[in-house]
Design a protein that fits this description.
The protein is an alpha+beta fold. The protein is built from 8 helices and 12 strands. β7 and β8 form a beta hairpin.
Length: 255
């Protein structure tokens, strides 16, 4: 059984000195898990170096090595004379991979859930019709969801699908499951690729309220059209991401 050491501010599992990982790496992993699990929210202050030394039973240099590694991963930031604080959540999203939100976040150990705002019948406007290759005015279903990561709202997803698919999805657990995984695993429709268009906007009153940000705060607006492997447009979305929530990664090849 692993003993626990307590301080007034922090309780840590004892470091296992016989483990192959260096002590600083074990501390870094433990603190990283606590941050990603939401034990420490964005901008909250971590325990002092002295408290961490006492909690983990290690030297100051070991604690500093662990903190330096977390800082390199942009999970924490230091304010001279004030201490160490948790950075706003900015996990990297890979633009070169087609993934659902929960799929991407779970791969980084970030707990996510959704709040389904609405599932409504709508008629395709000119843009929706062109993207989904249906006549204008065709029956579609619109899903609006708020996506949460580390207990904070990070995006508003507005999804449009053909009415036949929408009727099936409306019966699914969209609070805990990604639409992509439902389509692929339950409906046996492999997805192929997505076309993306990205631009920056300022949050209006509605977005500010839904995403818990100030009016006028930066928001990344993404249009995403997802295709099946068979070449059929399946899912057209407007995705609105908080500007302080993610960083985007891709690779540019020189041809």
């Amino acid at each position: 059984m692993r003993a626990q050491t307590s301080t007034a501010m922090f309780t840590a599992d004892a470091i296992l000195h016989h483990r192959p990982l260096p002590l600083y790496a074990q501390i870094k992993e433990d603190l990283r898990d606590r941050i990603l699990d939401g034990d420490y929210s964005a901008h909250s202050q971590l325990p002092s170096e002295s408290n961490l030394m006492g909690a983990y039973g290690v030297s100051r240099i070991t604690v500093r090595q662990a903190l330096n590694e977390l800082e390199k991963e942009q999970l924490i930031f230091k304010v001279p004379g004030k201490g160490t604080f948790v950075s706003p959540l900015k996990p990297p999203l890979q633009l070169v991979r087609l993934q659902g939100f929960a799929e991407a976040m779970s791969g980084m150990g970030v707990e996510v859930y959704n709040r389904l705002l609405s599932a409504l019948p709508v008629n395709a406007d000119a843009t929706m019709a062109a993207r989904l290759q249906v006549p204008e005015g065709s029956p579609l279903t619109e899903f609006r969801r708020i996506r949460y990561a580390r207990q904070e709202p990070v995006s508003l997803d507005v999804t449009y699908v053909r009415r036949s698919l929408g009727a099936r999805l409306a019966r699914e657990d969209l609070v805990n499951r990604d639409i992509f995984l439902i389509i692929e695993n339950d409906y046996e429709t492999p997805l192929g690729h997505a076309d993306l268009s990205i631009n920056a906007i300022n949050a209006d009153n509605t977005l500010a309220s839904l995403l818990s940000i100030p009016v006028g705060a930066p928001v990344l607006r993404m249009e995403r059209l997802t295709w099946s492997k068979a070449g059929q447009p399946i899912d057209f979305e407007y995705l609105f991401y908080r500007g302080d929530s993610f960083r985007y990664q891709t690779r540019a090849e020189r041809i």
